[in-house]
Design a protein that fits this description.
mainly alpha, Growth Hormone, Chain: A, globular
Length: about 400
């Protein structure tokens, strides 16, 4: 498990840097450009390449050396973080430069995201994949709880540009981990010679023939559309609903992150268990309601507590869903299936964020955000009642 520890540590340090930059950039967009729709545009630009190119990334993950793809992506993202820092230092940062940098970053992530998932599960025994997935979720959510308070402190002490510089440095942790990892043939490129288009069609055809995976993929898309844009608009909630500023925004993100840590630890401890489909649907019914209550409550301490509960429930459901698709995907098509899962798991977010941005402007953040979350809760509750196949997974 040496290889897993190396990539886990590198990804953890890099994720902290990513959260530091994300918090700083979101706050800059909200306070300096003063248009909630711009937050949606930034999210749309960052996530759109994942929708457009992640399926291709899954094909490449099954055909090209995974370490090479991951290394290239880290270097590109490092460079883009430095570009943001330079633009801010020189007072040339505009919403259009943010959108362009976000789009190119999304392009890099569209290739590395499915590759990382396939790489992660290829360096551990199959019987511990659920725990590996949960541990990966744990590192992400640990960073989500640690990164925002650091970002808030750095924003006050040093300014946003240094948050971008620190993110650039953090990518070196993944680069170092990849250089240190040694694999004896297991995670290298497979000996497949069919065309890229044929490979992609084969993966899609497999999912159509596998109703369990198809159901998981569809639910991931709904979660992405209705729930994931929440974090994009937390600066608006903190500033306009709660009146708590950058510190309050950091507390809200940390509340989600701390709850997610608890959820990820619980998932790792449980491992495989019966009726995981039912568990996922219960989580996706309850979690969005907790988040909606946080947006509507009007009190910083209560909102943070409710988002902590949301983090516990939502991460428990998401990690379990991720573990299910990892287990059900055959090794020879894991990259393509995980790419399709990632495509829907993140693909709904850009459109959801864009629509929510204009809804927040038209109807106010409290109503627009809570109504969107309630849609996911209603959908999950309906599936829980009417889908015995999914409940039995």
């Amino acid at each position: 498990m040496r290889n897993f520890r190396l990539i886990w540590t590198g990804a953890f340090l890099s994720s902290i840097g990513t959260w530091i930059q994300d918090v700083a950039l979101s706050w800059v967009i909200h306070t300096e450009f003063k248009n909630p729709a711009y937050l949606g545009w930034r999210q749309f630009a960052s996530e759109l390449p994942l929708v457009a190119f992640m399926l291709l990334g899954g094909v490449l993950a099954d055909r090209i050396n995974k370490k090479t793809i991951l290394m290239t992506s880290q270097i590109i993202q490092l460079s883009l973080a430095l570009v943001l820092a330079g633009l801010y230092f020189t007072h040339h940062l505009s919403i259009w430069s943010v959108v362009i940098v976000g789009f190119i970053t999304g392009l890099a992530q569209s290739q590395s995201a499915p590759t990382y998932q396939a790489f992660l599960t290829s360096i551990v025994p199959k019987d511990v994949i659920p725990r590996a997935v949960a541990m990966n979720s744990l590192q992400f959510n640990l960073s989500r709880s640690i990164g925002p308070p650091i970002a808030a402190a750095l924003l006050v002490a040093l300014g946003a540009a240094w948050c971008f510089v620190i993110n650039a440095i953090s990518f070196l942790a993944v680069v170092a981990a990849l250089l240190l990892i040694r694999i004896a043939g297991q995670a290298g490129p497979p000996k497949a010679h069919q065309g890229v288009a044929h490979s992609l069609k084969e993966g899609l055809a497999y999912v159509r023939r596998a109703p369990d995976i198809a159901m998981i993929v569809g639910l991931a898309g709904a979660l992405s559309f209705f729930v994931f844009p929440l974090t994009t608009f937390l600066p608006v909630v903190a500033d306009e609903v709660l009146g708590s500023g950058a510190g309050g925004y950091s507390m809200l993100l940390s509340g989600i992150g701390l709850g997610a840590i608890v959820g990820a630890i619980g998932t790792a401890h449980r491992g495989r268990f019966a009726f995981r489909g039912r568990f996922v649907l219960i989580c996706f019914s309850v979690g969005p309601l907790l988040a909606a209550a946080a947006v509507l409550c009007g009190k910083q301490w209560l909102a943070t507590a409710l988002l902590f509960g949301y983090g516990v429930v939502q991460t428990s459901g998401s990690s379990t869903l991720n573990g299910l698709v990892q287990e059900l995907a055959p090794e020879e098509m894991r990259g393509r299936i995980l790419a399709l899962f990632g495509f829907t798991f993140r693909g709904g977010s850009p459109l959801g964020a864009l629509i929510l941005g204009y809804s927040v402007t038209a109807f106010g953040p409290a109503f627009a955000i809570s109504a969107t979350l309630a849609c996911m809760s209603l959908l999950s509750a309906t599936l829980l009642y009417r889908s015995p196949r999914f409940r039995g997974l």
